[in-house]
Structures are given as C-alpha cells and as structure tokens.
Design a protein that fits this description.
Helix 1 packs parallel to helix 5 (145-160), helix 1 (13-24) packs parallel to helix 10 (359-371) and helix 2 (56-74) packs across helix 10 (359-371). This protein is of the alpha+beta class and 374 residues long. Strands 5, 6, 7, 14, 15, 16, 17, 18 and 19 form a 9-stranded mixed β-sheet that branches. It has 2 domains: 4-46 and 146-210 and 338-371, FAD/NAD(P)-binding domain, CATH 3.50.50.60; 85-138 and 212-334, D-Amino Acid Oxidase, subunit A, domain 2 (D-Amino Acid Oxidase, Chain A, domain 2, 2-Layer Sandwich). The chain contains 10 helices and 21 strands. The longest helix is centred in the first third of the chain and has 19 residues, at 56-74. The radius of gyration is 21 Å and the shape is globular. A hairpin with a 5-residue loop joins strand 16 and strand 17 (284-287). The chain has helices at residues 13-24, 56-74, 92-105, 116-122, 145-160, 204-207, 253-263, 265-269, 302-312, 359-371, and strands at 4-9, 27-32, 48-49, 80-81, 85-89, 111-114, 133-137, 141-143, 163-165, 170-174, 177-180, 184-187, 190-193, 212-222, 234-236, 275-278, 284-287, 291-293, 323-334, 341-343, 349-353. 30% of the residues lie in helices and 26% in strands.
Length: 374
C-alpha cells in the first residue's frame, strides 16, 4: 500500500520518468503540468532512444530506458520499433573511424561492420554512389515523440495510479508544499522539479550555481512515404560521428574532425549533424542544428534547414522529399560535460534537469538511479 506522497512538476519525459520511478518505489504520485499537454523539447525531437551514442555506464542506463519504453509500447500505448541505427561512410577517414568503433564496441554491443552491398540490402534509402561501408547497431528504438509523450500519462495512470493535473502552473515551492496560482496548496513528502528549459523559474539562486545553458535545435518532417515504403534503420551521416561521446573511442576521430573543420566549417559553427528516423506513419524526421546560449530568438533560420537537407542528400534518398513541417526546440544542457543534474535545493525537494539532447534515451534509467535509495 502506498503511504508516501510525491509531486512531480512537469510532464515532459523527465517528469514522466520520475513519476514512474517514484510510483514504483511506493509513492502516491501526482504530476502538475502548466499546459494542457506537454509541448516542449520532449515532443520536438527524433523520437530516438539512442544507446549507441552513450559511453560507459550511460550505455546500460540507455538500455534500461529502452526496456521501459518497450514495456509501455507493448501495452499498446504507442507505436515503437527497434529499428537500429546505421552510420555511413563516404570518405576514407569516416570509414577508418567506423572500423575503430566496431573494434571498440563489438565485444559488448550488438554492432556489425557492413560492406556497401550489405548496407544497400539493409536500407533502400542509402545513396550507393561513393559508399565505403557502414556501422550498424541493433540497439536503437524509435518512437514518435508526439504520440508517445501524449500516451505515456494514460499508461502511467493505468499501470501505476499516477494522477495528472493539467493546466496547473506551480508558482512557488516551500516546506514540502506546492503552491498553484493564488489559492491552491498541495503538500507531499517529496517534490520533484522537472521543468526543462525553464529550469530557473522556481529556484533561480540555486540554478545560478550550476553550469547550465540552453540549446536551440532546428528540425523538419517529410510527409509519409508512398506505398508504405520504409527506410529501415535510422540513418546517420559522417558528421554524427563527432557528436556523440561514445564515438570518442575511435583513435582517429580527431583527424576526421580536423578535416570537417577545414572543409565544413559552417556546419560545425551551427552544430549541424544530420540524421533521419521514420515513424509508424511513414513520416521522416530530419535534423538537426545546435545553437547554445541563455536566450534564443524564436525564428527558424532558412539557411540552416537548407544546409541540413543538402547534407542529407549526400547519403539518403527518399521516394518523397516534401517537407510537411519545420520547427525548433530548446533544451537545457550542462557545459561541464556531465550527463545530467540532480540536486536538492531544500529538504524534501529534488531537481532533475540538464540531460541535454538525451532525455528520450536516458530519462527512465536516470529516474530509477535517482530514486534507488529512497
């Protein structure tokens, strides 16, 4: 029987993960979300659960997160597919990095080094001209973030008894009490603040002590491919090799990055690396760029989207290139290289933030780690 109470502030992926973990630990959980549904960074991404990009213990955390995603998906809450990922090489230095990563990963991860013909057999969407090979990982799971984040509250309510209060903006937290507006007070034994890019709203002085910034990314979606055509694994160009920490295991990665700095400096200046995933409706999600700073303008830059599509066409080919939507998202990121931030600004309160672009990949596993000793 649940005798302890917990309040979670924020119904993005971090908040949902904390709600699940706390409920599993015996807490009676209530989630407060200021909007009628989650509309922030948690729905503005690829929907990739991405173990291949995680180093060390974060890889195991990503696998645990994937299993929870699959559990929810298998219950019929939302579509999901363990499609895997395919990193492609069109230059000798990219191919060298992929070979080194294969040797580093192969004893502990389900990876394959593929010839051009094997890549083509795995995905009809890959450009064959100039292809030297690819690195395939079978770990990666794809969901549609808009569908999945909208469905998770229902799953959490049914399976764990989590209660959700929508359109409830928390204005203040003190002495184990959450204040909503001018006339609501709610007490709990534990309060988890999972407010994403609005991190400083409730505890500005506490947050000022931490090396946090905001990252703005630009993405787009191509409409459903005709005749139920599928691309297979999520596809990644060479630029993605310098983006993920796990790929630092390749000894020749600095050489590759040096070439990119010489030949593709503008791509690096805007933090562009290009990937594509496909949802259950056949739509393609493509991106992305990375702009860092405390404040960002709300407008998309057309030239960034053009650069993304231009690079995408060097390694991918689709049946339909019609862009149906473009957007930007903003998420918090730590500048000291750490993967996440959790701290207690006052007794009975825990803040969870700073997962960077890995919220979909790490949140469920992180929430279990944070609540393990409660």
């Amino acid at each position: 029987m649940k005798t302890r109470s917990a309040i979670v502030i924020g119904a993005g992926i971090v908040g949902l993960a904390m709600a699940r973990a706390l409920s599993a630990k015996g807490f009676c959980v209530r989630v407060f979300e200021r909007s009628s549904r989650a509309v922030g960074a948690s729905i503005r991404n690829f929907g990739m659960v991405w173990p291949v990009g995680q180093p060390g213990h974060l890889y195991e955390r990503a696998l645990r997160s994937r299993e929870i995603w699959k559990e929810a998906g298998s219950a019929g809450a939302f579509w999901n597919e363990q499609a895997g990922s395919l990193h492609l090489a069109y230059h000798a230095d990219e191919w060298q990095v992929l070979q080194e990563l294969y040797e580093s990963f192969r004893k502990e991860r389900p990876v394959q080094l593929l010839t051009p013909s094997q890549v083509s057999n795995m995905s009809e969407a890959v450009v064959e001209n100039g292809l030297l090979g690819g690195l395939h990982s079978s770990d990666e799971l794809i969901v549609d973030p808009r569908e999945a984040i909208a469905a998770l509250p229902g799953w959490l309510a049914e399976k764990y008894g989590v209660e959700f209060s929508w359109n409830k903006c928390v204005s203040y937290v003190s002495d184990n009490t959450v204040y909503v507006g001018n006339d609501e007070e709610h007490e709990a034994d534990l309060i988890a603040v999972c407010s994403g890019a609005d991190f400083e709203t409730l505890y500005p002085e506490a947050f000022s002590k931490y090396p946090l910034t905001r990252c703005k990314l630009q993405m787009m979606r191509f409409r459903s491919q005709p005749d139920a055509w599928r691309i297979g694994p999520a596809l990644c160009g060479g630029l993605s090799l310098i983006h993920y920490k796990s790929f630092m295991a390749a000894a020749s990665l600095p050489v590759l990055k040096e070439r990119y700095q010489r030949e593709m400096a503008e791509y690096l200046n805007w933090g562009i690396h290009v990937m594509v995933s496909q949802n259950g409706y056949g739509e393609l999600t493509v991106g992305d760029s990375h702009e860092y700073g405390s404040v960002h303008d709300p407008f998309d830059k057309e030239f960034i989207n053009r650069m993304i599509v231009d690079y995408l066409k060097t390694f991918a080919r689709f049946k339909d290139w019609t862009i149906s939507e473009t957007w930007n998202g903003i998420y918090p990121r730590l500048t000291d290289g750490q993967a996440d931030l959790s701290f207690s600004p006052e007794p009975g309160v825990i803040v969870v933030n700073g997962l960077g672009g890995a919220g979909m990949t790490l949140s469920f596993g992180l929430a279990e780690a944070i609540t393990k000793d409660l």
